[in-house]
Design a protein that fits this description.
This protein is α/β, with parallel strands linked by helices. It has two domains: 223 residues, Alpha-Beta Complex (Spore Coat Polysaccharide Biosynthesis Protein SpsA, Chain A); 74 residues. The chain has nine helices and nine strands. Strands 3-2-1-4-7-5-8 form a seven-stranded mixed sheet, sandwiched between helices. Strands 6-9 form a two-stranded parallel ribbon. The protein is rod-shaped.
């Protein structure tokens, strides 16, 4: 049972590991057993599974909370946070039930939280010492793009916003609130942490992509959903950046199109009356030369007459 009050030097902190679970009968047993080596209790949120995941998790020592229907990743985390607060947990470690996250990294995830250095830690693939085994290049690129968009709005500077391997202090469990039901929750949680001045720290970890099942979300659907949420959030916080830059781009494109249209019109006009315009310019040049010649000729005659009258020269 959890202790009462805040942890002290003599009281052992009560640590809970939480796992959203949806049809993970192939992996859940081993993940629960390995996680129990580092935590006091494992809570599995069975999000409407149709297989034996719940029975296997319970048989391996986990406490299982069942959802009658699939509520999604965000729905599972809401239930998990409520349960962790009810249990008066000092820290909650969140990891996937499909075996992607290394349970041996749980102590590293908890260390900054239990020492008071951080309220919220993220197992990161993109800090020194982190990585992903057999991580597809397109997934890496997608994560980088989403992370960049998220950091523009939150200013957190997190390098791996899409990692589901996370740990939370009691303070974070009490303060964090989120509404999203899908994977966009990963960004909403970070923004809420930033607004509530929670200390977020990235911990290097290696996430595996060679597990039997992997994520229930395809890279395209996951990326589209999360990126849409990130851009909507960014447009609310920095509208000039999101709307102003594209607006300037559209204005520049319109100016270029207008210039091209004017050029095309000029070329068409030249093809119709080009010779006439040339004749006008040539004629004006000829008239200018004739006028200049007449003026010079008249001046020469005037000077000659003046010399004759004054000096008798011819």
């Amino acid at each position: 049972m959890p202790h009462e009050g805040l942890p002290s030097e003599t009281a052992k902190p009560y640590i809970v590991a939480g796992m959203p679970m949806y049809n993970e009968e192939e992996t859940i047993g081993s993940v629960v057993i390995r996680a129990l080596r580092h935590v006091d209790e494992v809570i599995c949120i069975d999000d409407g599974s149709s297989d034996a995941s719940a029975r296997i998790a319970e048989a391996c020592g986990a406490t299982v909370i069942r959802h009658r229907v699939n509520r999604g990743y965000g729905g599972a985390l809401k239930t998990l946070f409520i349960k962790a607060r009810e249990m008066d947990a000092d820290a909650l470690v969140l990891l996937d039930s499909d075996g992607q996250h290394e349970t041996e990294d749980i102590p590293n995830m908890l260390k900054p939280i239990l020492s008071g250095e951080a309220d919220f830690t993220i197992g990161s693939r993109f800090v020194e010492g982190g990585g992903g085994t057999d991580m597809p290049a397109y997934r890496r690129l997608g994560i980088k793009v989403i992370t960049a968009a998220s950091n523009l709005s939150s200013d957190l500077g997190i390098k791996d916003t899409q990692s589901g391997y996370r740990a939370f202090s009691r303070t974070a469990l009490d303060r964090l609130r989120f509404d999203a039901e899908g994977m966009e929750l990963s960004l909403e949680m970070l923004e809420d942490a930033h607004e509530k001045q929670l200390r977020v720290l990235e911990i290097p970890t290696v996430i595996r992509y060679d597990v039997p099942k992997g994520s229930n979300f395809t890279a395209v659907s996951h990326g589209f959903t999360v990126m849409t949420w990130a851009m909507l959030s960014l447009s609310q916080k920095k509208p000039l950046l999101v709307l102003g830059i594209p607006g300037f781009g559209l204005l520049a494109a319109a100016a270029a199109m207008g210039f091209r249209t004017a050029q095309d019109f000029t070329l068409q006009l030249d093809s119709i009356i080009g010779s006439g315009i040339s004749a006008v310019w040539v004629g004006l040049l000829g008239l200018s030369l004739m006028a200049t010649g007449l003026v010079l000729q008249s001046a020469q005659r005037f000077l000659r007459l003046l010399l004759v009258r004054e000096f008798g020269l011819d």
